[in-house]
Specification:
alpha/beta; TIM Barrel; 3-stranded mixed β-sheet; binds iron/sulfur cluster
């Protein structure tokens, strides 16, 4: 069972400023990861999760990583045009593209700007393998388009826990987990390979047997094709804000966290293995795979290209 947060409710979504910021490049080359390119149509994220690892990137870029994070979202208005030009370059190397590595591609601004949609249309038309991660149920809007990519496309729906009280405290701007799982169900029904990213699991808050089991069960019931798990990392920039929020919502856990993360950003391997092992047992019992999205899957032959590159 999870610990119950002590903090009072905050407004779910304070006003956000959308700043239109044309970009010079769309795809970022990534080394040493399970994907090859990252693509983020927006900068900053209105969901403002207390544990968001992007806070650390923002701090390194000299932008606010504290409570002001997510109050401004940068909108890369020309990202689709830039992406098309990059894919046309003879020097461009193929590989798996991951959307949503540094922002949520289906945060509310996407309803207005449709930049994630434009990037997906471009990538699917170019027959590129792609994967995306989101907490936004708006992804359902693009189910038919994602399904066109066949096995070369996968969607990870982030559901760290189905405990709504924990989610309300740690993810001030997201949709409730049940809405995300409904989105997963609809993607699966449309033929999209969709699964659950159960991250971050929070020590003493969402790592209890009952809490883990409820989340794995909900993933199974929603038809998750895969389930991946990760525990909380606290890199500088994320660490300060998360610990401040923790002191507000779970003050009794602060000494434990200070001890667990003393002098380090990542939890020790035995701790991580213990949590991953328990989730693996539950996942196997539920009959869910842990296979990452395929890196080199071939998209199906195009029935009709949506866009000319
Ligand atoms: S949804 Fe993702 S990118 Fe957005 S604040 Fe939460 S963890 Fe960060």
């Amino acid at each position: 069972m999870s610990a119950v947060p002590a903090g009072s409710e905050q407004p779910r979504r304070p006003p956000t400023e959308l700043v239109e910021t044309p970009c010079r490049s769309a795809l970022q080359r990534v080394r040493g990861m399970w994907f090859d390119w990252s693509l983020n149509p927006y900068g900053g994220c209105v969901h403002r999760c207390t544990f968001c690892y992007v806070r650390a990137f923002e701090r390194r870029a000299d932008r606010p990583s504290d409570a002001r994070y997510g109050r401004t979202v940068r909108v890369k208005t020309n990202v689709v045009t830039v992406l098309r030009a990059e894919l046309r370059r003879p020097s461009h190397q193929a590989g798996l593209v991951c959307l949503g590595t540094a922002t949520d591609p289906y945060q509310p601004a996407e309803g207005r700007y449709r930049l994630t949609r434009g990037c997906l249309e471009t990538l699917v038309a170019a027959r590129r393998p792609l994967t995306l991660t989101t907490r936004g149920p708006l992804v359902v809007r693009d189910a038919a388009l994602l399904a066109e990519g066949g096995a070369a496309v996968s969607v990870s729906i982030s559901v760290p826990t189905v405990d709504e009280a924990v989610v309300r405290s740690t993810e001030p701007g997201t949709a409730p987990p049940r809405q995300r799982l409904r989105a997963l169900e609809r993607l699966a029904a449309a033929g999209v390979r969709a699964g659950v990213l159960m991250a971050p699991v929070l020590p003493g808050i969402s790592d209890g047997d009952e809490s883990l089991a409820a989340t794995v069960r909900a993933a199974r019931d929603a038809g998750a094709a895969f389930l991946l798990v990760g525990v909380l990392n606290l890199t500088p920039g994320t660490r300060e804000h998360f610990l401040e929020a923790l002191a507000h919502d779970w003050p009794e856990l602060l000494p434990r966290y200070l001890d667990l993360y003393r002098g380090r950003s990542h939890l020790p391997a035995p701790f991580v293995s213990e949590v991953s092992g328990r989730v693996a047992g539950l996942r196997l019992a539920a009959g869910i795979s842990a296979e990452r999205p395929p890196r080199h899957a071939q998209p199906p032959a195009p029935r009709q290209l949506r866009l000319e590159l």
